Amino acid sequence: MYLARPLRSLRLLLNRRSFRTTAKMPADAKPKFSHLPLSTSGPIECAVSGSVLLNTPYFNRGSAHSAEERREFNLTGLLPSSIQTLEQQVDRAYQQYTSRHDDLAKNTFLTSVKEQNLVLYFRLLQDHMKEMFSVVYTPTEGDAIQNFSRLFRRPEGCFLNINDLNRVSHDLAQWGKPEDIDYIVVTDGEEILGIGDQGAGGILISVAKLVLTTLCAGIHPNRTLPVVLDCGTDNEKLLNDELYLGLRQKRERGEKYDKLVDEFVKSARKLFPHAYIHFEDFGLTNARRILDHYRPEVPCFNDDVQGTGCVTLAAIMAGLHVSKQKLQDMKMIIFGAGTAGVGIADQVRDAIATEKGISKEDAAKQIWLVDKPGLLTTKTELDQGQKTYAKEASEWDGKERSLLSVIREVHPNVLIGTSTVPKSFTEDIVREMAKHAERPVILPLSNPTRLHEAVPEDLLKWTDGRALVATGSPFDPVKGPWGKDGAEIEIEVAECNNSVVFPGIGLGAVLARASKVTDKMLVAAVRGVAGLSPALKDDTAPLLPGVEHVRAVSVRVAREVILAAVDDGVSTEKDIPTDKDDLDEWIREQMWDPVYRPLKRVEATGASRAAKAELKVVGSLEKVGDKILRE
């Protein structure tokens, strides 16, 4: 059982290569599932040597190459004489990391490590997960994206130009063969991390999301592909910046935009038929529309719509459990009716409908959306996703439609913030909500931190410690006189982070080779996370497991997703174990870990593209590499 307090004692265990099994095996023994193509046991085949090997992040281990490897792969003379352990390398890299003067400089340093040595990069992150998570992702990654053109050193990922539609398939094809890619993250850069249109700089959100899939769920890093659809930008600052690297034109919309998206999806499916497509940070007018269009036929996922909805629902379910309430009796207000807000509403609506056995239309009546115009009604100009939740205008004639007024009228027990309007959950609003809910669930989810609707300290102070809080960015625990007889207690605040959900969903879909991602698979993922909530055993503990424990969470999520995929008939992988313990072992065996596995010398002729260091290498460089191998 995954409990709150024991988890802390497991931190060291989870920071090592402990994701397989705690039982020792004989040195010559093979894991039960070591025959699988994605097995991470045994040696890695390598057909390159010398400087080519050292310039390949997947193979390079720098000062940690053994004496045997140095001789076998012609590395003598290319490395200092001392042979070090991975742990020593991590210590040195961490010292270098801490010497950087701010978080953006630390982010840039980590990128340079990744470009040299993948194992060292991910092990460094894994050993310092809690400290570095906000540096490699939000909020610091948002700063890196805003400065993409100024920090640019070398390209990473695939850039698809809307003015070169006829080259989309060609450009994607340079990234591998059909069996080479498992996971694709694609963005059009229009709505990045609450900072808006970042144009071509959006490639870095695709890169960052893929880092999280490896870090949190063991997706093989050399089998992923970050993509940006460069459609121009409406960001005048970028258009006027002489260093901007993207298309210098207003953002293209309409038919030409749809053709680019369609050409990308069709080409990706043809070139990489087993790949899972993850849509990221598309604008409000496109995100749901694109997802709804391709979801019935393609294994795809939108983290802003579905991932945010899943992790928020998991936090809500945990909060309702603590407050001894039921999902079917919930009244929820969402402040901020954009992609994330509507995505959360959809996930909660579907769960209510399932639990009560009612239609989605009836379930939507328990959800109120409030945006810039106030409460959304049938008289408000709405997009398709918002219309589901619009309240009859006649019912609100003569009534104020502000957030405070709607709370007074509705008496919600759940309040969600996805507005990016800082400090919008005022003391009046929070106290009004607390009048009618004994344990109000309040989730200010906007990020980065400066955009939060409220900080946990205020929410707990204004509700005398009764609020059940999760946030979109990390916050320190809050102390207050809320214990028995006014004793001071410390309440831990959960980070409502998509990373405890979306990597596990992706891992499950990849390993099951799912033909599509069904509602049942998403509900299974939510139950997997909610079932591991530390707050189920201690109401001062977080509503969600922390990111430092996410590898264990991802195994559970992947297991539930795979079982749901099999049950729904969308799994195409053969011989998936039916026993849960076997299935967990099957999953772990295929999760990439940041450890140095032995290199096995193989000849270039007949070797895989991975062995020849050709994955993620463009055509012209492949030819150069082949020439080096022949010589």
Give the tags.
27 helices, Rossmann fold, 631 residues, disordered C terminus, 5-stranded parallel sheet, alpha/beta, disordered N terminus, globular
3D structure, described in words:
It is a single chain. This protein has 631 residues and is of the alpha/beta class. Among the domains are: 142-303, Malic enzyme, N-terminal domain (Rossmann fold, 3-Layer(aba) Sandwich), CATH 3.40.50; 306-499, NAD(P)-binding Rossmann-like Domain (Rossmann fold, 3-Layer(aba) Sandwich). The protein contains 27 helices and 16 strands. It has a 7-stranded mixed sheet, with helices on both faces. Strand 5, helix 15 (284-294) and strand 6 (300-302) form a beta-alpha-beta unit.
